[in-house]
Amino acid sequence: EQYYFQQYAQHILPYFQAKKTLLDIGCQYGLFTIPAAQSEMKVTATDIRQLFFNYIKKQCPNSKYEIKFRKEFIDETISNLNEEKFDLILCIELLYNLPNHEEIIKQLSQMLALDGKLICSHRTKGYYIYRFIKEGKYDEVEKILSNSHQQYNAQTKQELIDMYSKLGLKVLDIFPIGIFSGIGND
Q: Pairing relation of β-strands 86-91 and 66-71?
């Protein structure tokens, strides 16, 4: 977790500014919720497990931190908060598990304030190939290689640029995270 936090942090933490609003979807143990709150951002943190909120509350016991917790799935968050606007929306380590990731990105982008930023993470084929080989799931490797895996999705850099552009979003940058984020043409 610490390795990946450092990888992400160098790209995300510069966006943490006092009085700005953050929607941290799938916040888990608050790797970004906590530093955002400490930066005096107004944070809305969502996840499906209460234990994550309990942990974050222990790390930020001071009432000066402005964190709203929402125990809900991403589609519920979008439905419940669709009228709100956020300066920054994080959707890290989540989209690649969803079959409708493109629609989710579109809906999240509509929740951005003027000049707001949406930061998402995606997986590459290299990640899945390594993972499934490590787990001995060679039939899954074959599905990834043939683009027929039903559960996981992976995109190349160009595919991501094309997808975000099609949604009317401007890609500011794409950064590889992790050691298997750019194998070959992946």
A: unpaired
pLDDT at position 38: 94
CB within 8 Å of 103: residues ≥ 6 apart: none
Helix, strand or coil, per DSSP, at residue 179: coil
Q: For residues 146-175, give the mean pLDDT.
A: 88
CA distance 47 to 53: 8
Which residues, at least 6 apart from 156, have a Cβ–Cβ distance to it below 8 Å? 124, 125, 185, 186
Which whole-number Å values give the CA distances from 115 to 4, 20, 87, 109, 167, in the listed order? Answer: 27, 12, 7, 11, 16
Average pLDDT, the chain: 90
Question: The tokens 């579109």 sit on which residue?
Answer: 106
How far is it, in rounded angstroms, from Cα 160 to Cα 158?
5
Report whether pLDDT(157) > 90. no
Alpha-carbon torsion (135, 141, 143, 144), positive or negative: positive
Using an 8 Å Cβ cutoff, are 156 and 181 in contact? no
Structural contact between residues 109 and 138, judged by C-beta atoms closer than 8 angstroms: no
Query: What was the pLDDT predicted at 178?
Result: 72
